[in-house]
Design a protein that fits this description.
heterodimer; A: 2 strands; 75% helix; B: two-stranded antiparallel sheet; 2 strands; 3% strand
């Protein structure tokens, strides 16, 4: 019975996901596309932040590199087809991560967070003064108005990201190595794990996946500028989505992304601005940190330390005894 | 030459104010072991408190200073124990959870300020706004001088508390080793709340002055957080004495780059320096951080 359950769930999920473009109108289809994008981005942040335990406050860099790679190469100067720009962005982001990862990943905890943030803001400022990125005015891409294409593009990218994460982090030795260095780096090193190399691989993987979504996003919205692709808001959302969903869990980031992005759009729909949404984001982080350190996914975990299996009971326990769960 | 003098003076005056809240930031890190993302939000809210005082009650910026001290001191005193609790919880990674908490606090306060006051820039009038002294050919804005004097007074007061009182000894002991300080009879949790309250109060007051000198809008908070981080990294996290030097250095650097290279490059220079300093010497250029 239990062995069949995930397969049934997967088939049903796939059916719903493929039927969605037929069922939704253009507006909701865009929202569904957005949910897929954020689910993928959250998963990519989760690789470095959740599995490796390095809180990256500058992950928007890699999203932005993907977006700018597509925008520049598809522009008049090069005129490449869209599909050819994705690998370029992916490799560029992975390469940048591999280069800066060496020195940056030596820093730990809050130092790493500040360093990545500083690096992201450096690139953001650079993008506003350089000519090739179009400065503050940004770049336009050739418009391609086919919502279905972007839905399936995001779907493919997100599915690939989750499949890759599942394979590498839940079903391989590599994942065990990464988790070992997260839990105790000196001990992992003493076990013979080359922690520097493993960290760097995880960081580059996390960067490369984020870049793919950047490329698709740029083509989707057809106009990008430094703020919209490299800005701190992009990173903030990734971080909050993963925290809400559950750091270091496979499906948690998707849950968090869906919940927050839909809330964001609802605010936008009814009040026409999203300033209050920022406050909600902050509140969500505080609530998660105080009451749900394992995120939404933690509520559904098969076995908590106390042996409770019921999500409702786990929630009650978390709310009444903050800070106790490990 | 005059331009250079003017630039240096501006840099030092601004660096002084940044020093006033950087000292508190360092003290908080020393005692709580938490990097407070919310520092910029306290600066911004201090500015808005002064703005409200001036529009609703019609009083100038200087009257808001003691009010800011009381209000933010109280808020900080209430929030301090929460941060302490998360930092010392049984979570798998309390350090990162505490970082996430202050980040959440910052986001909440920024979103709240945006909702309440919108994106518009507000200014705070004071008795000295627009007044300035001429020394030779260098213009000295009086407001900035007063703000600098205030910052010096705050720094002096903090140093007196830290190095000349028994309570300051307890703070320094806690910063050095929390566990041992607790064994010596220091109530670490209460001390943490007090230090966070003191720091929030001083930062709120600095915010009043910053709003009077420049102006205030909710999005500017991130910049002040950056300033505090920059100073903290340059000085070495937790080093109180280094913070003053680093803040002055920062003020001069920002003002020189803005004048001679262009203001759009000053952020680029700050962030690039911050990143490089972290890579080359994470304990700060004075090698005195934790």
């Amino acid at each position: 019975m239990r062995g069949w359950f995930p397969i049934v769930l997967l088939v049903c999920g796939a059916a719903v996901v493929f039927a969605l473009p037929e069922l939704l109108n253009a507006y909701w289809l865009r929202i569904a596309t957005g949910v897929l994008m954020w689910a993928g981005l959250a998963c990519s942040w989760n690789i470095i932040g959740g599995y490796a335990g390095y809180i990256d406050f500058g992950h928007s860099v890699f999203f932005g590199i993907g977006a700018y790679a597509s925008a520049i190469l598809m522009g008049d100067a090069f005129g490449w087809p869209f599909a050819a720009t994705i690998p370029v962005g992916l490799l560029a982001a992975g390469g940048v991560a591999a280069v800066i990862g060496g020195p940056t990943l030596r820093l730990r905890g809050a130092y790493f967070a500040i360093a990545t943030w500083a690096f992201a803001e450096t690139l953001l400022q650079l993008a506003t003064v350089l000519e090739i990125t179009g400065g503050t005015a940004g770049l336009s891409l050739p418009p391609f108005l086919n919502e279905r294409f972007f839905y399936f593009a995001m779907l493919t990218a997100a599915a690939a990201t989750y499949a890759l994460t599942w394979l590498l982090f839940e079903r391989s030795r590599f994942g065990l190595k990464v988790k070992a260095l997260r839990d105790h780096e000196p001990a992992a090193e003493a076990m013979g794990i080359n922690t520097a190399a493993v960290k760097l691989q995880a960081f580059a993987l996390s960067a490369a996946t984020a870049a793919v979504f950047g490329s698709i996003y740029a083509y989707w919205v057809t106009f990008i500028n430094p703020r919209s692709t490299l800005g701190g808001d992009i990173t903030d959302q990734m971080v909050v989505m993963v925290l809400l969903g559950g750091l270091g869990s496979l499906w948690g980031p998707a849950l968090g992304a869906a919940a927050l992005f839909i809330v964001n759009r609802i605010f936008w729909m009814y009040w026409g601005d999203t300033t209050f949404y920022i406050a909600i984001l902050g509140l969500a982080i505080i609530v998660v940190v105080l009451f749900l350190p394992n995120g939404l996914a933690g509520l559904f975990a098969r076995k908590t330390q106390n042996g409770s299996q019921n999500a409702g009971r786990a929630l009650w326990r978390a709310l009444t005894r903050p800070g106790v769960e490990r | 030459m005059d331009l250079l003098l003017q630039t240096l003076l501006n840099g030092i005056l601004i660096g002084g104010i940044i020093a006033s809240f950087s000292i508190g930031f360092q003290l908080t890190f020393g005692v709580l072991h938490v990097i407070d993302f919310a520092v910029g939000a306290w600066v911004v809210l201090g500015g808005y408190l002064a703005y409200w005082m001036s529009t609703l009650l019609g009083v100038g910026g200087f009257v808001s200073l003691p009010v800011a001290f009381v209000v933010f001191g109280a808020i900080g005193y209430l929030i301090g124990p929460v941060i302490y609790r998360v930092r010392n919880s049984r979570y798998a990674r309390p350090e990162l959870m505490a970082l996430a908490l202050t980040f959440g606090l910052f986001t909440l306060l920024r979103g709240g300020a945006l909702t309440l006051w919108g994106f518009n820039t507000r200014s705070v009038p004071t008795a000295l706004s627009g007044e300035s002294l001429m020394i030779g050919s260098v213009t000295v804005p009086l407001l900035r001088v007063v703000a600098f004097a205030f910052a010096c007074a705050v720094a002096a007061a903090l140093f007196l508390i830290l190095y000349r009182t028994r309570y300051g000894l307890a703070i320094r002991a806690t910063a050095e080793n929390r566990h041992n300080a607790g064994l010596m009879g220091v109530d670490v949790q209460r001390l943490s709340a007090n230090v966070y309250g003191l720091y929030a109060a001083v930062t709120g007051m600095a915010g009043v002055l910053m709003a009077a000198i420049y102006s205030v809008n909710p999005e500017i908070g991130l910049r002040y957080t950056l300033f505090a981080f920059f100073v903290a990294v340059l000085a070495g996290l937790g080093s109180v004495g280094g913070a003053i030097l680093a803040a002055l250095l920062f003020g001069i650097m920002e003002s020189v780059v803005a004048t001679y290279v262009g203001s759009s490059y000053s952020h680029l220079a700050i962030f690039a320096t911050l990143y490089l300093v972290l890579l080359v010497s994470p304990r700060g250029i004075l090698q005195r951080g934790l």
